[in-house]
Specification:
Layout (H helix, E strand, L loop, with lengths): L59 H29 L4 H9 L2 H18 L11 H12 L4 H7 L4 H8 L7 H16 L5 H13 L7 H14 L11 H11 L8 H14 L7 H7 L8 H9 L9 H10 L6 H16 L4 H10 L8 H12 L5 H10 L8 H13 L4 H10 L8 H14 L7 H7 L8 H14 L4 H10 L8 H15 L5 H5 L8 H14 L6 H5 L3 H8 L13
């Protein structure tokens, strides 16, 4: 098989392209030097085996390694040039080296800029100067005129594009002053590391319950939250200065224009004066950054004064700010008036509304239309007017529940055997139950009751007498109380029997109620433990006001009676049975 060869005449020539004229570049004090590439002639090739094949050129890996070394050297020189610019701007040598090492995109931008200029100068004619790569980068950086601000902004976490945008706001700031301000702002916003999970949780809660039109400041705050939420870790990273400071500055670039002495420090002092302690200050600032731009007298104080209508004292205002710093936004201020008017129309006592808002200010972000839906749900269980006031004063977060979530708890209670009337009584007595999670909270309490010997048949009686058991902590309250009773000598069966007869027993503190009353029973009254098994209601009476006075009367009459006979009677009945005269001595010295 023969290949066909294309014959090219020896006198064939190509015309050189006409150079394209480009616009002039900045007048740098140097000519960039370039090197021409020389290709080996055919006489230099070694052909040991096949005369028609050339010798292999250096491998691509070797070429790449050489290029990488050149690039590393150029970047090192570029960092040195940036460090020099920073020092000229007043930054210490140590800080300048650190900033240059933390601004790789800025350094690369300068390196690429010099390389582009070298390509441009390859078209130019004239004398060339022997200028080092570092000097070229230095001159280019000087020509840009940012005086190291871009490098510094990138070093604190901003992307290069964001740094370019933010730097426009900071043209009047000296670099050392900017560095000092950034340190102060970071300390102000991120000083405390206590309870870090609260911040992200509260941010999500604030967004979830916001159902009103919002102003520009709230819109900016939500945009800031969205940027954090898009990161790995989401809003839980809000309190991390490494993760969120970048987005804070990008969202609120004017933050770095504020004066430390005349604005930031007075703001910190004001927040402390209204009860926002140092550790809680970040909750206010990070959950509502626009507050930092407000004037204290004109904006903040005037808006906080609006809450005097609900009887909020200075300490209340501080707590409300920590829980819900949006209370000073114009949107929330307007909705506050709507909410007061709504509950006034529902004939809910103002004192109850005041208490609900002070303890759960998130209500202020909820529209009256959504509140009306939940109020109507409560009305179906005869919870209106004053009754509704008691419910929302005790558990205001119920107003922020979704109707289906509320009805799921209703269905859960009905499945336990309660009719709607009883459900209504439970709602009025312990509304917190209806804000609880069924799987994680309510069913766990049923499992606990089962573990201590309460059968399903007895559950309705136990819960009806003490519905608060659903919102009691198992590990911190319920278990310690049952374990203490076991340590006194009571059996598991005894304790189950006592709870079936008097379930509020589980609500009594060991140190304040159970221990002192049992010790008085056994040591002073000299009665056996089986007495409280038969009459567990003994623990419900006041030791000083009822148990001791009546015991001294009975003892003085030398009468042996049960705990029920001694305590269950009212004062008139007790006096008729055990006393010849009116009054009951309270001091054993009478006998």
């Amino acid at each position: 098989m023969f290949s066909k060869l294309l014959l090219i005449p020896r006198n064939f020539t190509t015309q050189s392209p006409t150079p394209t004229f480009l616009p002039p570049l900045p007048n740098f004090p140097f000519h960039l030097k370039f090197f021409s590439h020389k290709f080996p002639s055919i006489s230099h090739l070694s052909l040991p085996f096949h005369s028609h094949l050339p010798q292999a050129s250096p491998s691509r890996n070797q070429q790449q390694e050489g290029e990488d070394e050149d690039e590393d050297e150029e970047e090192a020189q570029a960092r040195a040039a940036v460090s020099g610019i920073l020092r000229e701007s007043g930054v210490s040598e140590e800080e300048s080296v650190e900033i240059a090492s933390k601004s790789p995109k800025y350094v690369k931008m300068l390196v690429d800029g010099v390389r582009d200029l070298e390509e441009w100068n390859s078209w130019r004619r004239g004398d060339e100067e022997d200028v080092s790569f570092e000097e070229k980068v230095y001159c280019l950086a000087r020509e840009k005129g940012d005086y190291g601000r871009l490098a510094f902004l990138e070093s604190i976490g901003l992307s290069l594009s964001s740094a370019l945008s933010v730097a426009r706001y900071l043209s009047s700031e000296s670099l050392p002053g900017l560095i000092a301000k950034v340190k102060f702002v970071k300390e102000m916003f991120f000083a405390s590391k206590d309870n870090e999970g609260f911040l992200g949780k509260n941010a999500r809660r604030m967004m979830m319950h916001l159902s009103i039109p919002i102003d520009e400041d709230l819109q900016q705050t939500l945009s800031f939250f969205e940027k954090i939420e898009a990161r790995r870790g989401g809003l839980d990273m809000l309190c991390s200065k490494d993760a969120s400071f970048r987005y804070l500055v990008e969202s609120f670039p004017r933050l770095l224009l504020l004066s430390v002495e005349s604005h930031l420090k007075p703001m910190m002092k004001f927040l402390e004066d209204v009860g926002v302690e140092g550790g809680s200050m970040r909750n206010v600032l990070l959950l509502y950054p626009p507050i930092i731009f407000y004037e204290i007298e004109k904006d903040i104080k005037s808006r906080l004064r609006a809450f005097k209508k609900i009887g909020a004292a200075e300490k209340d205002l501080g707590r409300m700010l920590v829980k819900y710093p949006w209370i000073i936004s114009t949107s929330i201020q307007e909705n506050y008036e709507n909410i007061l008017s709504f509950f006034d129309g529902e004939k809910v006592p103002k004192s109850s509304v005041d208490s609900a808002i002070k303890s759960w200010p998130h209500l202020l972000g909820c529209s009256t239309l959504k509140l009306k839906v939940m109020v109507e749900q409560f009305g179906e269980f005869d919870v209106r007017n004053k009754k509704l006031g008691k419910v929302i004063a005790t558990s205001p977060q119920l107003l922020l529940r979704k109707p289906n979530e509320f009805l799921e708890v209703v269905s859960f209670l009905e499945e336990l055997g309660f009719d709607r009337e009883t459900v209504g009584r439970i709602l009025r007595r312990c509304p917190e139950i209806f804000a609880a999670n069924i799987e994680k909270t309510l069913k766990k309490k049923l499992e606990f009751l089962s573990s201590i010997g309460i059968s399903n048949d007895h559950l309705p009686r136990v819960i009806r007498k003490y519905p608060e058991i659903f919102v009691s902590d198992i590990n911190r309250t319920l278990l310690p109380r049952t374990k203490y009773l076991r340590r006194t000598g009571l059996s598991k069966t005894d304790i189950a029997f006592m709870i079936r007869r008097f379930s509020p027993l589980l609500g009594y503190s060991v140190e304040e109620v159970l221990r002192p009353k049992l010790e008085f029973l056994v040591q002073t009254m000299e009665k056996p433990l089986k007495e409280v098994v038969e009459y567990p209601r003994y623990f419900s009476y006041s030791l000083e006001k009822k148990i001791k006075p009546r015991f001294w009367v009975v003892k003085g009459r030398n009468v042996d009676c049960s705990l029920k006979d001694m305590l269950a009677k009212n004062d008139e009945e007790f006096a008729a049975d055990f006393m010849d005269v009116q009054g009951m001595p309270t001091d054993p010295s009478h006998y």
